Amino acid sequence: MTALVTAPASESRHSLAARIAARIAARIKVGAWALVIGLVSGFACVGVRLTFRILQWVLVQRTGLLPQAAAMLSPERRFFIPIIGATLATAVLWAANRWANPGRFQDYVESVRHGDGRIPFSSTLWRTVSSAFSVATGAAIGREGSMIQFSTAVTSWLGEHSPIRSVSLARQVSYGAAAAVAAAYQAPIAGVFFAIEIVTGEWLWTEVPALALASTAGWLVSRWLLGSGPLFAVHDTLRLNASALWAFPLALLLGCIGPLYQWLLRSVRFARAWPAALLWGGLAVGLLSLLRPEVWGNGDVALLDALASTQGLRTIAFLLLIRVLATTVCVGTGTVGGVFTPTLFAGASLGLAAGLLLHVPQPVLLAVVGLSALLAAVTHAPVMASLMAVELTGQYQLLLLLLALNMGVWLVASRLSLRSLYAASVSDSQD
Known about the structure:
The chain is mostly helical. It is built from 18 helices and no strands. Helix 3 (75-100) runs antiparallel to helix 5 (121-136), helix 4 runs antiparallel to helix 7 and helix 15 (363-379) packs antiparallel against helix 16.
């Protein structure tokens, strides 16, 4: 009788052990595949970045950061090169529609949130080529948007041939997005939360290990090929003192400004219906760059200057005005790219301006708060925005402060505008 009772119990223990072993093996397979996705996405992202650099050298005959290249050009060339780039970008899209039949474009956020993860590669490829001509010739748009979109399209193609059937294609695309963000911004932790808060919109903690593996792989590829270090490092250690109290009203103000900024970027979308619409974006950049060469590009040089606090209040206000105007025209006319880095610059500028007006001892502290808060306000992703700010600047001691501030920013902004910037972009692509 005892033997009869013991035998089923022993079989049950063996069965439980087998199930646990099978689950562990499945997790290992998913993790290994996430690493593969991260490496492929990272190489795709870096490949697009290097293509932009090569094309910039061909069209501008200058290497390095775009505003620095623009400053070395004659006024005539500074005016005409963005128009030439817009013409070539327009020609690429026209040729694609005329002969290549690329099909409907699908944004990666739309693909994951509202689709099955399939991103048509052809339409993404043609748009990336168009973006390359715009970015390489100074368009006031973020190059990282095209880098991430292309990487996720490659990930989608790879996922369709995946040997791992237990993970949906949409989840695999989210892994690719995390890796691409990590590669583009040297921000592996923010890459994970970009995928969670923006791409999937779901807090699925079981996906964090795979997202972390993919993001780390993309980050390592970028470090290997493009170099390491925070992209917008603040070399002084920013200390929390009494002046940091100004960060709270500043963050709440930016929570109110965020929806207005988002509306402004989309305010001239009607211009997409104009003949040769992209040329108007090139014309705006060319004209405004005659005033300041920092109009060229995604705002990286202007952001570096803001975080170094090398500019006076009038200069930073003027740069903010003309850069937001140039970016708004480029977005409105349909120039292919993103607005992530331009938003970082706008937030840092507003924060620095507040610090200069208030005469705080470390105005750069408010610049970092502004960068993070405006990003949280327009993306509705407070954790990602906090992590992105500290990884970009290297000021990790500010993380808890930024998290607290951005939660308040998110509450304010989400009540003023139900749609985040990425949700609005998805809506635009469906129009």
